[in-house]
Amino acid sequence: MAADVTHVSPSRPAGPAAAEHGPGTVSGAVREVWQALDQDPTRNRTGRERDPQQAPDGFFWDIWLSQDDPTRVREARARMMRQYMDTSVEPCADFYTYACGGWAKSHPIPPDKTVFDTFETLREMLDAALRVELERPNGEEPAPSLSRLEKRVEPAAAIPVSTSPLQRATAPAPPTALDDEGGDPASDAGGAEKRKQAAASAGAHTDATTKAKWLYKSCMNHELLEARGVAPLVELLRKLGGWPVLDPAGWDDRGFDWLHLVAQLRLYNNDILISEWVGPDVKNSDQYVIQLDQTGLGLPTRDYFLAPSNAPYLKAYRDFMVEVMELLGADTATAVAHAAEIVSFETSLAQIVASSEERRNVSQLYRRLSLQGLCDLVPGVDWRRYLAVVLGRNIPDEQPVVIFALRYMSDLVALVDKNPRRVVADYLLWRFVRHRINSLGDLFGAAKQRLLHALMGREAVPPRWKTCVAHVNSHMGMALGALFVRRYFDHNSKQDTLEMTRDITQSFREMLNETEWIDEETRRLALHKVDSMQLRIGYPDFVLDRPALNERYEDVDVHPDKYFENTLNILRKLARVEQERLGTPVNKTLWNTAPAVVNAYYSRNKNQIMFPAGILQPPFYHRHLPRSLNYGGIGVVIGHEITHGFDDKGRLFDEHGNLLQWWGEDAIINFHERAQCLINQYSNYSVSEIDLLINGENTQGENIADNGGVKQAFRAYERWAAQHADAAQAETLPGVNATGRQLFFINFAQVWCSSMRPEAMRSKLKIAVHSPARFRVIGTLSNSREFAEVFNCPVGSPMNPGEKCSVW
């Protein structure tokens, strides 16, 4: 469902309104969030008092502040809805502009973003809340949750820090003192030496949420990052055998073994040249199996290297490479020469990588064989030696292996053999370095900004705190999610979402039973798959179980002053946990999606739908908003994810998450005919800003899900309205001249209100599986008979064409 769905500051002193808005009140908690955004919710960016009618940010402030006041929540949402709309546009002519025509005027794209939409607005608020929690000293009494629940979650008393030495830092730095946040209760009593000893011994057994705060603190310690400079990365490169560009005279190719280096880099959770992982077998989802695939590239798609029209982007990539090499100590002439060779090698690599269009059907890519069989088919790679390094043990010849890119592996061997060892080493370590510079100082961030400006049009580097919040959420998402859920999550939303999911699932069952183009056996199995779908809402239970959460991170060493090493430790942990799954049973109840994200997911291999806590907020959901808005928001998301189980990829998997042909032959033919209608429809949409067409083939899965999701959610809303006639009469918003049925479609459209830089749109269209926001609205609603009826759109009008496409 993606929208295509990161210095520890001292605790701020209470302001003059502390008595009214202190840390123990709902408004105090929200005010902290606004301060984290470097904004005053009562003032606009010029310092003048905010007018909520004119300041869209203020709408979110009003909603957050008014959690228990249904009238104020609805008034705030109504103001938001009115400002997003352009009612001078006829809804039957262009419903996206009707619903979102005011968005761009009031939401200029921030300099540090390439796109600004409702998802990004929610992420801004969410990230600010996460910043508040990461900067909150341990032991501070939490405010009530924003919904003032009677049974809210209160954090347990802080667990004393247990200590052990750092275990996995590649190049340990001298220990430094801990601050008040989770450290030495003796404070200054033991002096600086005692604090150093405490810092040196703090390690694997520290509380998980404290580790998350330490990771954030280490990321924010700008002065220390600059003082340490490039030394941590240069030392790591030396231990990996050296990067030729940094020592062209001293690097000796006689000891170079490309496969061993690829395996070593995999231990840091990097897939370079060979993509390897241990995961559930797509044809037997109860069994973990070693899996192999082609590599990713340093630019979004192979066309960036191969299409002449993309030459400016390739030059920007090469310039970025040269700048990074120079910052790490290479002289300019050497950097320019080596970068040219690396780009040449990667261009050849792009030629043997299959395109996304060639890889849509996983059943055609899947090949399961024994390790011995793999060695026989691709003898140029010593698979036994590679896997022994990656998995940390020898693998028997009869061990099953699944490979999705057999031809690529043979072509890779030929490519490596025909290139000098130095060039291969340069390329491998360049790809590794590119990820590792994110843990270094500002000069590397500036270099990356120049590349992103060329590729995506981004105008500025994000504030450091945003980068650090994102880093913690991606690397310790469950620990950070625990902080978020304890303080901000409305637990009533979990039950509401569950009830809506049941309603919308019933809608899909009805649609399946009404579908005439599938045979009875396929229908029976499809209904069984719907009934077997697992639902995950909000967060996994263990995030509120402090011992269980601590156990998840117990052997991850995090130090408040070692950002580079912290990142390596976490990456090695992630890689190790994944490899250790081999030989263990698959636990399909596990939920690995962090709670504090604004997105939703469907897992084909688990037949599982996930709605993290971060998405259960306006405009998707609020318990005091009209049901029409909730069904048009999170309801459509629910229907979207259900439909993913039956799109062009999801339909290939059965109720257990196994790749299996369970459809009848005629049903398959009929499905493809209907999917082709959508492919043709969306392929004819042109993005006027850049004069490019949408790729209807690549976006078909999401387009199928969008169309099915709206149909299911509206059907469920209509059923609710019929069963609750009195409540349905109150389905209005103050000052918005729309019925409940109309509000459903307006809210669906406003979920996709968006502005995007032309460079970002051009890049997105090259790789996107989602249609641009405008066409997610126009394409979906022009296929909806219900929409045309609700807005009285004449047949033949732009939003009610005579020819419509429908899969589900």
Automatic annotation (TrEMBL):
Membrane topology value: Single-pass type II membrane protein
Similarity field: Belongs to the peptidase M13 family.
CDD domains, A to Z: M13 (cd08662)
MF-aspect GO terms: metal ion binding; metalloendopeptidase activity
Region of interest: Disordered: 1-29, 158-204
Taxonomic placement: Eukaryota, Metazoa, Ecdysozoa, Arthropoda, Hexapoda
Keywords associated with the record: Disulfide bond, Glycoprotein, Hydrolase, Metal-binding, Metalloprotease, Protease, Signal-anchor, Transmembrane, Zinc
Chain segments annotated as coiled-coil in the UniProt record: none
Domain Peptidase M13 N-terminal: start-end pairs: 91-540
Required co-factors: Zn(2+)
Listed PANTHER family: FI07649P-RELATED, ZINC METALLOPROTEASE FAMILY M13 NEPRILYSIN-RELATED
Xref: Pfam families: Peptidase_M13, Peptidase_M13_N
Encoding gene (name): LOC113203983
Compartment(s): Cell membrane
GO cellular component: plasma membrane
Descriptive protein name: Neprilysin-4 isoform X3
Entry annotated with the keyword Metal-binding: yes
Domain spans labelled Peptidase M13 C-terminal: 599-807
A GO biological process held by the record: protein processing
Biased composition (Low complexity): 14-24
